Amino acid sequence: MSTRNLENLAEMKCKEDESKPRPEILPETEGFWKAAARHELAVQCCGSCGQNMHFPRLLCHRCLSDQLTWKNTSGHGVIYSYTIIRQAADKRFAGDVPYVYAIVELEEGVRMISNVININPSEVRIGMDVQVVFKDLSEELSIPMFEPTERRRM
Fold first, then answer.
1. Is the pTM value of this prediction over 0.70?
2. Is residue 1 over pLDDT 90?
3. Is 3-148 assigned to CATH 1.10.10.10?
4. 51, 85, 92, 150, 152 from 13: Cα distances, Å
5. How far apart are CA 32 and CA 43, in angstroms?
6. I want to staple 105 with a disulfide (CB 3.0 to 4.6 A). Which of 46, 80, 136, 153 is the partner?
């Protein structure tokens, strides 16, 4: 492929990313997105009972405390479950298929839904070790995704 064609392809991909829906940043999710923009993966932690939580909430789901703070994670986890998306439900994602939609269990004990990238989808397995990587959509918005990594257990 010529350099010109590669530039055109990169420009098309960039425009495609711009047309995709963006997450709605709510007061309870703002800390998560601010951390992601810094390429840090954060989860909420309850100051009353110590429970780690994801997805972000206004109250602890264990003790109903509102004493919630943000805690950076290691960014490491394992694939708990996954599926391979082979047909886009929205035409804006048609260029991404096939892609892996996974539940990742972080070392900190919370589960998070994300994409697994930088691997052939047919090679993904439950229990596979992964680490967070970030896809920058703008200076203010980065999306956490995961990629395979060497085994690193604490």
1. yes
2. no
3. no
4. 40, 19, 11, 30, 33
5. 7
6. 80
pLDDT in tens, 73-104: 999 999 999 999 999 999 999 999 999 999 99
Any idea which residue has 């257990």 for tokens?
153
Domain range summary for the chain, segments of one domain joined by +: 3-148
Span between the terminal Cα atoms of the chain, in Å: 44
Tokens of 56: 């972000």
Using pLDDT thresholds of 50, 70 and 90, give the confidence band for residue 19: confident
SS3 track for 61-102:
CCCCCCCEEEEECCCEEEEEEEEEECCCCCHHHHHHCCEEEE
Residue 24 half-sphere exposure, CB side, CA atoms within 13 Å?
1
The total number of residues shown for the chain amounts to 154
CA 142 to CA 139: how far, in whole Å?
8
pLDDT digits (tens, 9 = 90+) for 103-115: 999 999 999 999 9
Tokens, residue 122: 């047919």
